[in-house]
Amino acid sequence: QEKSCHLSAALLGEDSEISQEQLYELLKYAALGKCHNAAQPSWCCIYHQSHLAGVVVVVLHEMSQLHFYRFYLQFKHLRKVFRHRFTLAPSPNFPVSLYGEGANLTPQNTPQGLTSTSSECITKSSDLQCDPIIRRYGGKKQGLTSYTLTLKEQKENDYPIEGSPRCQGYISTECDQQRTDSSPLFGLDCEMCLTAKGNEVTRVSLVDAQGQCLLNELVKPESTVLNYRTRFSGITKKMLLPVKTRLSDIQTRLKKMLPHDAVLVGHSLNSDLQALEMIHPSVIDTSLLFARNEGRRFKLKFLAKAVLGKEIQCEQKLGHDPTEDARAALELAQFFIEQGPTKVAELNLEMLLTAEKLAEVSQNKAALQPQGCGFQEQLSEPPPLSKPCFLDCLQVTGQKPLLLGRQGSDSSGLCQSNLSTSNKQILQRALEVVPLSKFSIIQFSLGPEYLASQLHAGLYEKVRSKLTDMLTIYAGPFEENFCIKSVKKEFGRCGPIQSLIVVTETFQPYVCIQYEVLEAAQLAVESLNGTEVAGSCIKVQRPVTAAMLDCNVLIKELELDVENEGVIYVAGLKKSLTETDLQEEFSQLKDLETLFLPKDLQSGKHRNCCFLKFQKTQSAVDALKALNGWTMKGSELRSRKALAPGHLWRWIWQMHHSNGKQGKHIFYEKMEQLSDSEQDLRKKVKKLDHHIKKLYRSLQNNTLCVVLFPGVNSTHGSQSGLGLMGIKDDEGRSAC
């Protein structure tokens, strides 16, 4: 049964701001996995990465967290599907920071003006027919027997052959040629030294199909050693002094270990069998398997890096490790058999080898550049070597990165198309080709008319104003000489207060209280409206403005937000309580997973409230019932469902403390001219949400989907981005 992938991310609280490097970590691991030396990201965990069906990144060009919350009701699909969200630090060059400095994909235009898969960027299908691998094996995937050397090929490549005059005295493994496509593979590699007799074995390694080492033995040569070839073999005179094992012992052991239908795999395996003085009928030679023109051969070190993403034969080590080399040759053969000739040809190994040699030349020139010479200034400096990009690594492993987007929307040149390309065309193309790609980046845009920095500034002020209104409550009327301290204490039990002002313009005094968190304001409206406070029966309400008419709808949708499932808000905590105290107090609550204690981002002091996240939604419901009226250290607690996840709490706090506050009346007068364009913008955002919904529904199960509002950097200021992510499950929503 296929394992389902799922995602775990502790993003409740201040740690919910993710850097571009951390996002890069996630995408690299999701795309490449452990087999290509990619590590689990430090801030989240992907379980069963090898079972991921693919990775899809949707980039909403020049949109920020601001857009998501300004048009929260319009982003109906996004907020209901993705369980994990994080604030994304804005970057001056978002594409480069996302794709890596080494990204060299420049997709070609198609008739529709859309980019194609990277296989078309690397090697056109018509060129594949000329590839030596396709010419030799054809394009179809075949079993391993199609890749074993024929008797003729063995003779041409100097393999030991039964009955050959040159092989007198050689020992046969006594394996027959009755091999099948299910015959077992074994990787073999030897290290040799130069003796009076010629090349003699000094070390032998054999690994099975799972890469397990079956044999790794030092061998004492029969003749006098003339050159230990320590630089390559790693063998020294001292190492061989205590060795008793002779070649005949190794021959006997190999005969016993190999089953009758064994297929030996090695790189230039003829040299190893010659040195072992053994004859074996079924062999796969990776130096011939990865065919080149004019009889040339790729080195094992290059193939391991280009195909498997592995570094072997490192210069830091003394000599080669035969077990490492045997395992690398085995994995190369397995890759070729599993992927087939076409996939291997698409890697375009010749191009990669040329690029590697050019890089070496650049490095050597830089190292040899004369210091302190009079003509030094006239020499042009070699271009700095860019960091490896995981998209390049995808190409190397045979996967096909896909980039779709608009021309002009990507300053790095990673996406090209004609100017008439619309989001609808991009979606149609994505629905066709995304299922064929393991890694896709789809870029949508609202269009140049909505990317003006002035519009961003206007949206920012509008969102900040609405949030301020949602955080604000008016309470009263009170008696003329009411106790402000009592009012502040009572309302403070609902959560941290940002400011409290007495309103005296009315016949009787009222108070205007602005909270730091949305839950506190909502709790005050729900629990204190119609109650007696400071000797007066009061009414508690939010400001009545045009922007606040849909406040109740917004509150309800925030409660139903998938990210707030199983999360509750608790207020009325004493500030003397530490996080450890709270963990102990709440330990009796069933299925409690995480406790987040908000802190003032300037002073570091925690507030008198916290958020509790439960593993199950029902456990959160039960906890709400239990906590109502709960007394902790003499203080009565108040609780409700959460409204604002951690990343939004941080953002609200930053908006509170940002400069450039303006009066509301001036602001609304200023924004009237944008009302028509904003109506149009709402429609476009709703349509964009629908496009993403359609794309998401077309994805296979176990596909990691990441939607990015990359943020904005401009002369008018920067806006943080927002990321939403999840792995699609059988029900069409993102799995935890």
UniProtKB/TrEMBL annotation:
- One GO MF term attached to the UniProt entry: exonuclease activity
Hydrolase is among the record's keywords:
yes
Give the RRM domain ranges. Answer: 471-545, 566-644
Alphabetically sorted, this entry's keywords are: Exonuclease, Hydrolase, Nuclease, RNA-binding
Gene3D superfamilies cross-referenced by the UniProt entry: 3.30.70.330, Ribonuclease H-like superfamily/Ribonuclease H
Question: Which cellular component appears as one GO term in the record?
Answer: nucleus
The protein's name in its UniProt record: REXO5 exonuclease
Source species of the chain: Rhadina sibilatrix
